[in-house]
Specification:
The complex is a heterodimer. Chain A is α+β, with helices and mostly antiparallel strands. Helix content of chain A is 30%, strand content 16%. The chains are: A alpha+beta, B alpha+beta. The complex binds flavin-adenine dinucleotide (FAD), iron/sulfur cluster (SF4) and FE2/S2 (inorganic) cluster (FES) (2 copies).
Chain lengths: 168, 334
C-alpha cells in the first residue's frame, strides 16, 4: 500500500485504498478516520448497507470482507486494502435474478420496512455458508447480530431455514 | 473523531518499534471493535494508531499441545470458538467466545483485543456531561448516584464501580491462563489473573502492561477439568448482549463422584475477571447435588456489595453458578 502524506516514518492521515467492491476494482484516497460503511455509502454510492447505530450494535451495515461477514461501521476503511468487499448489491445473479435467499425473504414475509434487510441478507448468506443454519435455534443464535425493529424475526428464521433445507 | 496518524505493521518487531516511536498517546488497533468504536465517541482520542490486524506473528492458535493450549493474540474470536478440540475438551472456553457479541463482531475481534476491551458503563461511554473518573480522572462517578444496574458488586472502589465486561477473560481466569507480552524491554509473562487492575484511586489504569507492551499469546495449561467445564451467561436477551451474570466452572470428579479439581469464576459483576476460591472450596470433596451446587453459588456471592439497582444479581448469580456447576458436572461424567 502506498503510504503517502506521511507524517512520521510510514504513518499517515490519508491513504490510497485499493480493494474490490462487488467484483469491481476500486481505488480512492481515504481519511484514516473513515469507516468502510461511510466509504461505501457516501463515496461510492453503494447504499445497500445501512447505518442503524454506527456502533456495531444492530447489524444493518453487515457486508462480507473476503467472504466473512463483518459490520462495516466498525471496520476502518484503511483495513480493507487488498480485500474483496461484497454488499447486498453484489448478491443477485448477472441478469438481476434474485438469489434464493432474497426470494425466500419475499416468500416468507421476512421484512416490513426493509431497513434491516440488506444486513439480514448478508448475515443470512454467511450463516448458511458457515454451516450455522442447522435448526431454528442455531439460526436465531447466529443471526442475533442483526436486529429488526419491525420484528420480522419469525420470517427471517423461516427464510434462512428454507434455503438451508434446499441446499441439503 | 479526532485525527490520528495511522501506521500499518506486518511483524511483531515492527509493531513494538512503531508503538515506541509513536509515544504514550498511541494505541494498537486490532479488530477495532472496542477502540474504533470509542474513537467515534471521542472517549478514546489517540494521537497515533498502530494497526496490527495483519501481523502474522500474532495470528494462529494451537489446541493440540500436551502441556498447554496456545492462542495468538491476533486470532479471531470466531475461528477459535469453532475449534473442534476446544469445543470438546474445553467447552467453557469455546462457549465464552461464541456467546459473546455477534458472529460479525467475532469475525473481526481478536483474542488480545478482547482481553483489553473497555467497560460498557453507560456513563463512561456516554461522555460529557456525565462525571466519570475512568474517562476524566477526578470528575466523580455518575454511576454511583445514577443507574447502577450494570455496575459491579465486587472489586469496586469509591472512585469507580465499572464492570469488566469480557467473557473470554472470565473463562480464562478459571483455567489459570498465562499472558505472554512483548515490549521495548523484551518478552515476559504474567498470570491472566494479574493482567487487569481493580479501579482503586486510579480507574483510568485498567491493566498492568508497561507502556509499549503488546500481548502476543495466551497460554492455558492442559487440564482434565476442561472436559467438565461450562460457561453459562445470563443476559437481558437470549443472545447478543453482555452478561448480567456469567459463571465459568471447570471440574473433575473422583471415583465416588465427588468433586476433585474445581475452578469457578464469575463475570458481569466484578471490576476485573473474578475467581471465587470460596465457591471452589465449598464444592470440593462433595457430590454434585442441587444443595451442594446452590452452596457453591452462595459462597461465590458472599461479600457482594450491591448498589441501588443491581442487588438482584446476588440471587441471579447464585443460581447461575449453581446451574453452571451442575452442567459442568454432567459433562465431567461420561
Ligand atoms: C455490540 C457489541 C457487543 C459485544 N458483546 C460482547 C460480549 O457479549 N462479550 C464480550 O466479551 N465482548 C463483547 N464485545 C466486545 C468485543 O468482544 C471486543 O470489542 C473485542 O473482542 C475487542 O477485540 P478487537 O480485536 O476488536 O480489539 P480493538 O478494538 O482493536 O482493541 C481493544 C483494545 O485492546 C488493545 N489491544 C488490541 N490488541 C492488543 C494486543 N495484542 N496487545 C495489547 N493491546 C492490544 C487496543 O489498543 C485497544 O485498547 C462486544 C462488542 C460490541 C461492539
Ligand atoms: S463506574 Fe467507573 S466508568 Fe462508570 S461512571 Fe463511575 S467512574 Fe466512570
Ligand atoms: S450500523 Fe453497523 S452495526 Fe449498526
Ligand atoms: S424490516 Fe423493518 S427493521 Fe427489519
Amino acid at each position: 500500500m502506498a503510504a503517502t502524506a506521511s507524517t512520521a516514518a510510514g504513518s499517515a492521515h490519508e491513504l490510497d485504498l485499493a480493494c474490490t467492491v462487488n467484483g469491481e476494482p476500486v481505488r480512492l484516497r481515504v481519511d484514516t478516520r473513515e469507516s468502510l460503511l461511510d466509504v461505501l455509502r457516501e463515496r461510492l454510492g453503494v447504499t445497500g448497507p445501512k447505518k442503524g447505530c454506527d456502533h456495531g450494535q444492530c447489524g444493518a451495515c453487515t457486508v462480507h470482507l473476503d467472504g466473512r461477514r463483518v459490520v462495516s461501521c466498525l471496520t476502518p476503511a484503511v483495513q480493507v486494502t487488498g480485500a474483496d468487499v461484497t454488499t447486498v448489491e453484489g448478491v443477485a445473479g448477472p441478469d438481476g435474478e434474485l438469489h434464493p435467499l432474497q426470494q425466500a425473504f419475499i416468500d416468507h414475509d421476512a421484512l416490513q420496512c426493509g431497513y434491516c434487510t440488506p444486513g439480514q441478507i448478508m448475515s443470512g448468506l454467511a450463516c448458511l455458508a458457515e454451516g450455522h443454519a442447522g435448526d431454528d435455534d442455531e439460526v436465531r443464535e447466529y443471526m442475533s447480530g442483526n436486529l429488526c425493529r419491525c420484528g420480522a424475526y419469525a420470517g427471517i428464521v423461516a427464510a434462512v431455514r428454507a434455503v438451508a433445507e434446499q441446499g441439503r | 473523531m479526532r485525527p490520528f496518524a495511522y501506521t500499518k505493521v506486518e511483524t511483531l518487531a515492527e509493531a513494538v518499534d512503531a508503538l515506541a516511536a509513536a509515544g504514550p498517546q498511541a494505541r494498537l488497533l486490532a479488530g477495532g471493535t472496542t477502540l474504533y468504536d470509542l474513537m467515534k465517541l471521542e472517549i478514546e482520542t489517540p494521537s497515533a494508531v498502530v494497526d496490527v490486524h495483519r501481523v502474522a506473528d500474532l495470528a494462529g492458535f494451537d489446541t493440540s499441545g500436551d502441556r498447554e493450549l496456545v492462542f495468538g493474540a491476533g486470532a479471531r474470536m470466531a475461528d477459535v470458538a469453532e475449534d473442534g478440540r476446544l469445543r470438546r475438551d474445553y467447552p467453557a472456553l469455546s462457549e465464552s467466545l461464541w456467546r459473546a457479541a455477534s458472529q460479525q463482531l467475532r469475525n473481526m475481534a481478536t483474542l488480545g483485543g478482547n482481553l483489553l476491551q473497555r467497560t460498557r458503563c453507560p456513563y463512561f461511554r456516554g461522555g460529557e456531561p456525565f462525571a466519570c473518573n475512568k474517562r476524566s480522572p477526578g470528575s466523580g462517578c455518575a454511576a454511583q448516584e445514577g443507574l447502577d444496574r450494570s455496575n459491579a458488586l465486587f472489586g469496586g472502589s469509591e472512585a469507580c464501580i465499572a464492570v469488566y465486561p469480557g467473557d473470554w477473560a472470565t473463562a480464562l481466569v478459571a483455567f489459570d491462563a498465562e499472558v505472554d507480552v512483548h515490549g521495548p524491554g523484551g518478552a515476559r509473562s504474567l498470570p491472566l489473573a494479574r493482567l487487569h487492575r481493580e479501579p482503586g484511586d486510579t480507574p483510568q489504569h485498567e491493566h498492568n502492561l508497561a507502556p509499549g507492551e503488546i500481548i502476543t499469546r495466551v497460554r492455558v495449561p492442559v487440564t482434565p477439568a476442561g472436559r467438565g467445564s461450562a460457561y453459562l451467561k445470563i443476559r437481558d436477551r437470549e443472545s447478543y448482549a453482555f452478561a448480567l451474570v456469567s459463571a465459568a466452572v471447570a471440574l473433575t470428579l473422583d471415583g465416588d463422584g465427588r468433586v476433585d479439581e474445581c475452578r469457578i469464576a464469575v463475570g458481569g459483576v466484578a471490576t476485573r475477571p473474578w475467581r471465587v476460591p470460596a465457591a471452589e472450596q465449598a464444592l470440593r470433596g462433595n457430590a454434585i447435588t442441587e444443595a451442594s451446587a446452590r452452596a457453591a453459588g452462595e459462597a461465590a456471592f458472599t461479600g457482594a456489595r450491591p448498589g441501588r439497582a443491581n442487588a438482584f444479581k446476588i440471587e441471579l448469580g447464585t443460581r447461575t453458578v449453581a446451574d453452571a456447576v451442575r452442567l459442568a458436572g454432567s459433562r465431567a461424567v461420561g
